Amino acid sequence: MSQAAVPRGRARPAAAIAFTVLALVIAVGAYVLAGLGKRGNVPATIALYGSIFAIGFAAAAFTIRRYAPSADPALFPTAAVLTGLGFAMIFRLSGGLAAEQATWVAIGLAAFCVTLFVVRDHRQLDAYTYTIGLLGIVLLLLPVVPGIGRTINGARLWVKIGPIGFQPSEIGKVLIVVFLASYLTQKRELLRVATGGVGPLRLPPAKHLMPVLLAWGASLAVLFIQRDLGASLLYFGIFVVMLWVATGRAAYLVIGGLLFAIGAWVGYQVFDHVQLRVDVWLNALDPAKVFDVGYGQLAQAQFGMGTGGLVGEGLGRGSPGLIPFASTDFIFAAIGEELGMLGTAGILLLYLLLVGKGLRAALASPDAFGRLLATGLSTAVALQTFVIVGGVTRVIPLTGVTLPFVSYGGSSLVSNFVLLALLVRVSSGPAPVRPKGGG
Amino acid sequence: MERQVRQLALALGVLFVILIGQVTYIQVVSADRLADNPANAKRQLIAEYEVNRGQILAADRRTVLALSKRSPGELRFERRYPQGELNGYVTGYYSFVYGRSRLEESFNGYLAGDAPQLLPQTLADMVLGRPKRGGSIITSIVPELQEAAAQALGDLPGGVAAIDPRTGNVLTLVANPSYDPNPLSSHDPAEIRRTWEELNADPDKPLRSRASDELYPPGSTFKIIDAAAALANGYGPASTWPNPHVLDLPDTNETLSNFGGVTCSGGSRITLADALRQSCNVVFGEIGLELGAEALAEQAWAFGFAPTSTTGDVPFDVPFQEGVFPDPSYFEDRRPAVALSAIGQDNVAANPLQMALVAGAIGNGGVMMRPRLVTEVRAPDGQVVETFEPEIFSRPMTEVNAALLTAMMIEVVEGGTGTAARISGVSVAGKTGTAQHGEGADPHAWFVSFAPADDPQIAVAVIVLDGGSLGSEATGGALAAPIARAVMEAALNR
User: Fold this and answer.
1) What is the reported pLDDT for A390?
2) Which helix (H) or strand (E) holds B162?
3) Which secondary-structure segment (H or E) carries B139?
4) Is residue B291 over pLDDT 90?
5) pLDDT value at position B479?
6) Contact in structure between B314 and B370 (CB atoms under 8 Å)
7) DSSP helix/strand/coil, A80
C-alpha cells in the first residue's frame, strides 16, 4: 500500500473553536427564530435548551481537543449544525417532541464523548472483528424476536423492553460497518484475486464470492422479514461500496448492481407494499390518486416544499404540520417549507461537506482499516441521506429511514453521534498518550 | 484503495448534485403547479387567508363595510363586517367552507391583491417580508341611506333599492329578512355550517336579496313603462282613452276591473295622464292591447327587462336578476295576457333595483345608466389605482317623452295614489303598485319614485311583500310610499 497522498490533519484548535461556536449560534439561533416565528416571542425553554446545546457542544469540543486534537475541525460542527436545525424544526412542530429530542441530543453528545474517550485508537476495534459483527447482526435481527419486537408503520424495526423502545438497527448499522471494515481489510487480498471472467469482467473464485451473496441474502432477509425496504437498500449499498473500495475490483459493483436489480425485481413481484411504493413514487400528484392516503402523504411533502419556494416561509411561519411524519421521515420537506430551496440545498451541502470530510479522513488514514472504516461510515451517512431525501423529493421511491442528525428519534441520533465520533477518531488518529499533547 | 475513495467521493457528490437539482425543480420550477394541485386545498386556504384582504368602504370613504382582522388561529386574517346584516347584500360573505359571494367574489382580484394594478405594492410587501395586502374598494353605498332605508322598512318583509340616476351609483340596497355575513366568514367550520344550514332552511331565503335577486309582479308600477311605450307611439299625456267600469278581455268571458272595482273619475273618456294618476287598470289594459305585446316588450327590454329570467343582461358589480317581460311570441294565442301584463301581472316580473333603474332613466332624461356599486379601487397605501366611470346602459326614451312622463308621475304624488310620498319643498315623481300574486295571498305593495323631479339626485324603489302590516288592505301608496319618502328625505337633506 502506498503512502497516503492526503496529509493527516494537524491540530487546528482555533478553527475548531470558531466552527463550534458558529454551530452553536446557528443551532440556538434557529430554535429561537422558530419560536419567534411561531408565537412571536423567545421560547420560554431558551435557558434549558440553550444550555443543553451550549454545554453539550462545549463538552464535545473539549473532548475532541483532549482526545482527538488533530481531528478535522469541521466534522463535529457540521453535524452539530444539522442537529440544531433538526431540533429547531422539531421544536416548531411540537414542544413535547422537542423535550424528548433535547434529551436525546444530550445523550447523543455524551455518547460521542464516551466513544472518543473509550476508542483511543480506531485500530482497537480491528481486534474484535467477529464480536462486533455478531453483535451487529443480533441488533439487526432483534426486532424479529417475538415478544420484544414491535411493528410500527408497517416495518418491524422496533424493540420494546419494559418502557424503553428503541430501533436496534440504527446502532447495528454502525457495528456492521465496523465489522465490514475489519473483515474486508483482512480478506481483501483474497477477494482481489481474479481467476475467471465473463467478457471484460474478471471475477474472483466462487468461494470468495460467498460474502457478497451472503450480504445479498441478509439484505433480502431484512426486506422480507422486517419489510424494511430502506434499511435493506442501505446495508447492501454500504456493503458493495466497501467491497469495491477494499478490493479495487469494479466487478463487485457490477455484480452488486445486478443482485440489487434482481432483489428489487423480486421484491416488486412479491410484495404489494413495494408495488405500492413504486406507484406512489410515480403518481403521487396524479389527480385521480392524490387524495389516497399514501399518495397524499408524499404529495403533501411536495406541497410543503413548493410552498417554501426559493427562500421559504420563515422558521415557525409555514404550515409543516400538514406534512405527515414531519418530524421523522418527512422532516426534509418540513424544512423545505420554512427555509426554502436555499435551506434544503444548504442542508444537502452540509451533508456533502460531512461526507467529503469523512472521505478525506479515509484518504489521510495511514492504515487500511481506518481507511475502510471512514469510507464505510461516510458512505452510510451519504446513502442514508440520499435514500430519505431522494424518497421525499421523488428521485427514488420513498423508503422510511431517518435523516441523519436531523430527524426526531433517539436511536438514530445516538448512533449517528457514535458514528461521528468514529469518523473524528479516524480523522485525528490515536489519542495522545498524555492528555495535554506534549509534542 | 485511494483511487476508489476518490471515485466514491465523486459518485456521492453526483448523488447530492441530483438531490440539489431536484429540490430546485420542486421548490422553484414547479412551485406554482404544486400550489394549484387539487389536493393542496388546505395550503391554498392558508395562503388565501395570509393576505391582509382589502377593505370594502362606503361612498364616504370612511365607513368600513368589510375589513380583515388579525386572527390568532392558523388562518392569519379573519373577515369582519361591522354593520352585520345591514350590508350583507352589498359585501356578500367570505367563507372558507362555502366560498365568496357578491363584492367579495366579484372584486376578489382587487381585494386579494392579485390584480395587476396592485403588483408594485404586492412586490414591495413581498420584498419587505410583510403579509400581502389587498386593495380597498370604494362603493357607492351611502351609509345614512342604508340606515334610513333599513329603519323605514323596519320588520316588514321586502326590499329597497336607491340609485343616483345621473351615474347609476347604487346608493342603497337593503332587504328583509337579511343575513349577517360575520358567522359565515368566521374561522369556525361548525359555526359556519350551522349558520349556513339555518339560512338555507329558512323559507324566507335570507341569502337571496329581495331587492335584487328575487322577482315579483311589479303591478301598477309597470304602468310607467306602458306610458313610456304610449308616448313613444305618438300618444301624448292628453290623449284620451275610453273609461268603462270594466274591460272585456278578448277571447274570454273575463273582465279586467280597476283597483277596488271602482270606475275612474273623469267621465267616459280619460286622459293618459289622469289614468296614470288614478292608476286605472282598465285604461292601461286598453293601452296594452292597443299598443300590442311587441311595443310593450320593446319598451320594457329597453329599460333592462329581459325575455327570460336569465341574469347578466344588465351588467352589475354583483349578481342582479333583471326584470322579465316575455317574448311577444308568448302572447300570440294569449291576448288577455297582454292586458294583464300591461298592469304588471301575468308573467311580468321585477324587483326594487330593476324598478329604481326604470324610474332613474325617466328622471335622467331618458338615459339609463348602468348600475354600479364600485367607483374606485385603492392600493393599500391609499393611492387610487383604478376609477370606474359612469356608463350609459340604454336610451329607453327620448328626452321630451321623459319630461312628459316625469310630469305625469309628479301628478301621481301631488294628487293621485302616491300622496304619501310628498316632501315639502321638493317635487317628487312616483308611481304606486299593488300587485296580486296568487289566490288569497295579500298583495305586494310597491312604490317607485325619484326626486327632485326636475333634477333627480335619487331614484328609489320599494317593495313590501304580502300586505306587510296592512294585510289585504295593503296598497303601494299606503305602505311603500312612506318608506320611499323616508329614503328620499334622507338623501336630499344630507
Assistant:
1) 96
2) strand B158-163
3) strand B136-139
4) yes
5) 96
6) yes
7) helix
Q: Are A115 and A421 in contact (CB under 8 A)?
A: yes
Active site residues of B: 220
Statement: residue B474 has pLDDT above 50: yes
CB atoms B27 and A362 under 8 Å: no
Query: Containing H/E element for B444?
Result: strand B444-451
pTM of the model: 0.73
Determine which of B19, B25, B28, B70 to mutate to test the interface with A (most A C-beta atoms within 10 Å): B19
- Crossing angle between the packed helical segments A206-226 and A229-247, to the nearest 10 degrees: 160
What count of CB pairs under 8 Å joins A to B?
Answer: 137
ipTM of the complex: 0.92
* Mean pLDDT for back-to-back runs of 10 residues, chain A (439 residues): 54 88 96 90 92 97 94 96 97 93 96 96 92 88 76 68 73 92 88 64 68 75 72 86 90 87 87 87 88 87 94 89 90 96 97 97 94 97 96 91 93 96 95 60
User: How far is residue B254's CA from residue A411's CA, in Å, rounded to a whole number?
Assistant: 95
Percentage of chain B beyond pLDDT 90 is: 85
**Which parts of A58-204 are beta strand (E)?**
149-152, 155-161, 164-166, 196-198, 201-203
**Which H/E stretch holds residue B309?**
none
Separation of alpha carbons B383 and B117, rounded Å = 11
Domains with residue ranges and CATH for chain B: 219-373+389-493 (3.40.710.10)
H/E segment holding residue B122: helix B119-127
Between CA A85 and CA A91 the distance in angstroms is 10
Q: What is the identity of the amino acid at B170?
A: V
Q: What is the pLDDT of residues B21-80, one digit of tens each?
A: 999 999 999 999 998 888 888 888 888 888 999 999 999 999 999 999 998 877 889 999
**Sign of the Cα pseudo-torsion (A293, A298, A299, A300, in order):** positive
How far is it, in rounded angstroms, from Cα A24 to Cα A20? 6
> Which residues of chain A are within 8 Å of residue B34 when distances are taken between CB atoms?
285, 302-303, 305-307
